[in-house]
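Researcher: I'd like a structural prediction for the single chain below. Treat it as a standalone chain; there are no partners to consider.
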Amino acid sequence: MLIPYQLIYVSTLSPDASPRCVADIIRVARIKNAQRDLTGLLVFDGQHFCQYLEGRRTDVVVMGGLIETDPRHTGFRILHEGPLEGPRLFADWSMGYARADDQDLSAIAACQGASAVADLLTRQRGFDLDP
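Model: Treating it as a single chain, here is the predicted structure.
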């Protein structure tokens, strides 16, 4: 059995990018992720991103590398990556999206390791989700 792999990162919207670009990011991510059997969640607070990806290790690592080089954001920093213990956390979403204007994503950014994933899952209850 293949063990799913997970990655969570944070970044900041590039000064040259508009928050309106997030709609394009989500649209393309849903298509590409579905093709690669990747699932996850992107959270955006108007300035900062937090994204969680899960799937086959190779696909997650490759997608993480592509995301890292995207000029629409800066300060890409991986908080955690590694094998996922148990089932996928967002198995039904090729890319869920949450606008989190009232959430402080800096708290997630301060986490490292599995605690970053746990913090995201705790905060998920307060997100306005668009799976």
